[in-house]
Amino acid sequence: MSNQPVAEVAESTQTSEEKRDEPTQPKEGETSPDYPEGGFKAWSVALGNAGVMFCTLGYINSWGVYQAYYEANQLRNSTASAISWIGSLQSFSIFSAALVGGPLFDRYGGKIIYPPALAFVFTIFMTSLCKEYYQFILAQGILGGVTQGLTMAPAMAATPQYFFKRRGVAMGLGVAGASIGGVIHPIVLNQLLTQTDLGFGWSVRIEAFLTLAILLISCPAIQARVPPRKSSFFLLRAFKEAGYTSLIVGSFFTFMGMFCPLFYLPSYGISQGMTPTLAFYLSAILNAASFPGRIVPAILSDKFGKLNAFAAAGITTGLLTLCWQFVKGNVGVIVFTALFGFFSGAIISGGTVTLANCAKHPKDIGTYMGMGMAWTSVGSLIGPPVSGALKDTDLGYKAVAMFAGTASLLGGLLVLLVVKPLSGFKILSLG
């Protein structure tokens, strides 16, 4: 059985170059001579991707600390839903910016990572100066998210150019960098904000210097393996592939549900009697647990099927989130946070790997991933603010758990029951 979705649609608008470059993907168990599947340079790219993810998605994964801090300090007169729009815009922007970042990498290679990386560090410095709500929206939510996305997209697109058979583990290693960042960033922020007299400004500036140091090491490793694509900037023919389009729909719902607990677990902990210091550590606990949650399913996906791993992540995350409403006390919140981190960890790594697998040529991987992540990002934009509004109702966090759990569960079931058949696999096959 081919490891590549087989929904291929012939179209008259396809350029002669695209037709000439159309390859045949390696079959299950084979290693294509076009994919190194290892070696110093290939693993250097994967580690560089991990460093970039540490600084970008890992930074966003610490939003729960910012959410709880803003609620108690600068933005205490704003609602939780309004504050969550800052993080939600950041999450939306980092994935939607891949719509441009992915094709840019396919056309120009790794050099395009440097301008947005420097701009991203600049936005962190600007965040340290913010005092008003609109300033946080602009600096952290919009500009921060866009520059993060333009930095992250080339790193994520480079890795699958070097791997096919071992693509799951290679990209899982990269995304695991976000887990490490999601541990380090909240701890650093928590210590600086609560245990020192530095104040908000210098606490965030230290975060900026840390990010700059990691990016200076990681960005040079991001290099394309194949010559740039000279054809269309976007590959709109991809949306005629039923497997690809349905995968985007399933990813939309899983992302919508996944980001809600990421935003609200620290404030939920405080509502259960946790001290603010301990509640801030929940983001670190969640991301620490997501590290094996991203590595182990990624390894298994290379053996048992990438769509299966992604579907399992959505279904288990949804079921667990539905149980969130019954979690009480410090111990219960900590255990739930760790379990959620593990099971949800595979959603981002699984989603990106399956999107990359839809591309028929390495030159197109960045564009396929970028277009798919851009549509998926709408889910991360909608989910947290809706959860914030539900949190302020009489049902409170119970409504948040029901909404987020249902969304993730629906996404996982769509991948299993709809995406797999449309991609040419049987529901119970290793696809």
UniProtKB/TrEMBL annotation:
Name of the protein described by the UniProt record: Major facilitator superfamily (MFS) profile domain-containing protein
Its membrane topology: Multi-pass membrane protein
Region (Disordered): 1-36
Biased composition range(s): Polar residues: 1-15
Keyword Transmembrane helix on entry: yes
Keywords of this entry: Membrane, Transmembrane, Transmembrane helix
InterPro entries tied to this protein: MFS, MFS_dom, MFS_trans_sf, Proton-linked_MCT
First-listed, main subcellular location of the protein, grouped into a coarse class: membrane
Record localization: Membrane
Domain Major facilitator superfamily (MFS) profile, first and last residues per copy: 243-431
PROSITE patterns documented for this protein: MFS
Annotated transmembrane regions: 42-62, 82-105, 112-129, 135-157, 169-188, 200-222, 243-266, 278-300, 307-327, 333-356, 368-387, 399-419
Composition-biased stretches (Basic and acidic residues): 16-30
Family that this chain belongs to: Belongs to the major facilitator superfamily. Monocarboxylate porter (TC 2.A.1.13) family.
Domain of life of the source: Eukaryota
Short name of one Pfam family: MFS_1
GO molecular function: transmembrane transporter activity
A Gene Ontology cellular-component term: membrane
